[in-house]
Amino acid sequence: MTIYLPTLKQLQYLVALKDHVHFGRAAEACFVSQSTLSAGLRDLESLIDVTLVERTRRVVRFTPLGDRIAEKARRILREAEELADMARAAGSPLAGDLRMGVIPTIAPFLLPALLPGLRREWPELKLFLREETSHAACDSLHRGQVDCVLLALPYACGDVEAAELFEDRLFLAFPAGPDEPPARITPAAIDEDKLLLLEDGHCLKDHALAACNRPELRAEATMLGTSLHTLVQMVDNGLGVTLVPEMALSAGILSGTDVLARPLQADHAARRIALVWRRGSPREKEFRLLADALRVAHGDRQARAA
């Protein structure tokens, strides 16, 4: 008896449609024409003799069975990728494609200083970066859309392994005034009516609130900022104060402003920067090599700054 199995290409088409819920965008993501993707999905449905997707002129709707098969297909594709990763890792480490997620409160401040060194040390590495909030980055990791994530801990990212890189202290940023500010700021000195934080979805907001250990700040804080740069501009215009990580200060986020920054004096006034990946990944040795390289690059950056 001949058994016809779905091809990986057909499963890729199915997962892409599940992710994009649009034939045109799914086809673009797979680098094929819309007709090719549509035909591939029809062939898949004929092969397994079930309807996976209900098609109308305006709506793409997965059937309940289609939902389950799409998630199973996602796992199969991830296993297939890991099989290829296993073979590649046995050859030359940190060579070929590597997809890394990075959160917005790390990417613009750390990567410009670290990437040149990585390119020199691992010239065969092709690093593709995807900037997302912590929740989205962890979701992309478990969906197999990225291989690892540069993340700030503590953060619940699911079943992952982590290599901690360094601590990133938190500072209070405030407008310059006539009085000399104290060398360090305690959480008790922060006026909740003037505190500006990032919008929900940015883990730095949770790290800042945890460092302050003042539950009322969560309800009282004016959470308007979409980015650290936006918050700094708001502080420079006298709209309040905010908490900024040390890496952003080192990268010059206060340049061109009259904003001052002082260390926050608290028990947990730092976040831990780490590289995380799916537990059991066959590329674990590569990720640990990458973490080592990032630590060295960060140390060199600090030495140059000093």
The whole-angstrom Rg is: 23 Å
Approximately what portion of the residues adopt beta-strand conformation? 15-25%
Low-confidence segments, given as residue ranges, are none
Share of helical residues: 40-55%
Biggest sheet statistics = 9 strands, mixed
Give the CATH architecture of the largest domain: 3-Layer(aba) Sandwich
Order of helices and strands: HHHEEHEHEHEEEHHEHEHEEH
Mean pLDDT: 85
Name the shape in a single word.
elongated
Distance between the termini: 72 Å
CATH fold type of the largest domain: D-Maltodextrin-Binding Protein, domain 2
Counted beta strands:
11
- The domain count comes to 2
Q: If helices are DSSP runs of H or I spanning 4 or more residues, what is the number of helices?
A: 11
Structural class category: alpha/beta
CATH class of the largest domain: Alpha Beta
Keywords: DNA-binding, Transcription, Transcription regulation
Domain HTH lysR-type: 6-63
Protein name: Transcriptional regulator
InterPro entries: LysR_HTH_N, LysR_subst-bd, WH-like_DNA-bd_sf, WH_DNA-bd_sf
Task: Give an account of the 3D structure.
Residues 6-63 form the HTH lysR-type domain. One of its GO terms (cellular component) is protein-DNA complex. Keywords: DNA-binding, Transcription, Transcription regulation. Pfam families: HTH_1, LysR_substrate. Belongs to the LysR transcriptional regulatory family. By secondary structure, the protein is of the alpha/beta class. The protein has two domains: 8-87, Arc Repressor Mutant, subunit A (Orthogonal Bundle); 94-306, 3-Layer(aba) Sandwich (D-Maltodextrin-Binding Protein, domain 2). Helix content is 45%, strand content 23%. It is built from eleven helices and eleven strands. The strands form two sheets. Strands 3, 4, 5, 6, 7, 8, 9, 10 and 11 form a nine-stranded mixed β-sheet that branches. Strands 1-2 form a two-stranded antiparallel sheet. Strand 3 (96-102), helix 5 (107-121) and strand 4 (125-131) form a beta-alpha-beta unit. Helix 1 packs across helix 4 (64-90). The longest helix has 27 residues, at 64-90. The protein is elongated, with a radius of gyration of 23 Å.
